[in-house]
Amino acid sequence: MNHRQILILKKLMTLSHPLNSNQIASSFHISLRTAQMDLREIISFCDANQIEYSYEKKSGYKILHKSDLSFDNLNTDTDRIKDILRIFFFTCDYIKTEILADRLFISTTTLSKQLKEVKEVLRNYSLSIVSKPYYGSIIIGSEINIRKCILHEKLLAFHDNQTYECGLSYFDTECFHFVSSVVANILITHKFNITDNEFQNFLLIVYLSTIRCRASYFLAEDECDKGTAGHAYSVSRHIIQKISEYYHFKPRNSEIQFLASSLYGKNSLFTTDIIPIEIEQCVSDILKIIDEKLDVDLTYSIELRISLSLHMIPLLERIENKAQLIDTSFLNIHNKFSYSFELAIIAAEYISNLKKVKLTEAEIAYLAIHFNVILEDGNRHNQKNILFICSSRRSDSLLIKSGIYNHFKDKIQQIDVKNLYEIDRVDFKKYDVIFSTILNDDRVPKNAIKLNHFLTDSDYTIIEFTLKNGSVFKMIEPLFSKSRFISKLSLHNKNEVIKALSTLSTNIVNENELYKSVTAREINGYTSYGNLIAIPHPETLLTKKSFCSVAILTQPIPWSETNYAQIIILCCASKQSSKDLQMLFNFISLLFNNKKEVEKIINNPTYDNFINSLQNLQHAL
Question: Are 529 and 566 in contact (CB under 8 A)?
Fold first, then answer.
């Protein structure tokens, strides 16, 4: 579970009445669909940990036998101290002890003990907590020291479990994207020389300055070095002018001097390296290896570089202290974000070699979250042209169009809705994706995807998946072949199966080279994903042509310490089309939670039935 899901479960613990998804969405400032997904994760966690709960259709879920629940393994004292500091700094107002305790789901007694440690941290920055009757408490001190504390205590978080606390965002992604764009463009315009490491540190300082200024917290004139001038000052003034115009605050000379001294190298915030150069080098090496192995270039993403760097700092500390994360609730990330997990395994291998310690599954899952956010963002910018075919009246069609666009306007460039009797004049090549309420009509294109006339949650899920991945079945079907399909295979270990599948692929790739690369990948982390499915693949891109080879075994065999496999799909992406691997993982991952199709494949292990099951996946969302 992520941090928000843990908080939802803690809230369920404290209540004597049930809570439904609408109430959770309202309390945590998230969409209804996100709340429903969170509840599914929470219930899976409860089932796995024998936590008893009740459910009623209208009122929702209620946790029973609360005394058996413990969250000690989910929150360390260090995490909680950071949470307290974040709430104080990012609430930007007085906060009462009772409200603070409620947000953290701890008693006021426990909070009092934790506040003593918080005060010790603040003392290092000449900051303190003061209380005011009927108002609560607030942190006071100079603005420069507040910013030092936020940066040095790593209170800025991107995509990990500490990004959200009860709906309060600690990282404004939209603001960061804007600041990143402004800073990069201005540095390029001014031809300002700066290393990658210096750029990332400077970007964090500019971002923090922006969110503080937006909240009307400005640096005093006497808090900054006034001796900085020249090139660094003109660049900083240009940056502050652009950002202040966009966010409507008055540009201050103190803020310009603060950024200028950072660029000039005199600012203590900058010279202490928020992101140490050795950490930045590790991240650069990881992204380079991912590009070399899978031909996935993520080096362009400043957000990924910074988020991984900020994540690496506490990760290396946990490794040093022999305190890696071991929470098994993270394992579902392996199934949900299987391709991102592949990238995380490459990163984990690099870190393991560097520190001579194997990373736990939970640590790898954490890394996968960072990769997944960037991959999702890349898909988000790839807007689609949509055609929706229906047999309804024109007025109803406009309602459908409005519904789809309101849900997915950031993913849709154009959406046309056509009546069944109008489509003979339509050029289908104009559209990336075609949906239809009816398929059993010769006028409807074969690649159309079925939706209900009155769109349900399931329909919106299908639309979301298709906009992200396209009509994937039509794209991946050519990767399979009857000549690379073998059923009723009676083997007893995975190396024998990999050998058999490698032999099936000899007309495309060297059998021994493929076998060696696939088994090498297996050593770095298992490729079984539950529900009797394994997707072995080479650790690097080997071939000129993407393909899949499939084996259906007579009996499940152990594929990892925890998973058995009976349907084995060996995936091999080409050097010319590395995105095939991501597409395959995204599509085949639908089988992980589809027991019905898996049973159909096992009970009738023919090539035609296997392909038919894959075709059904898009409709089984």
Answer: no
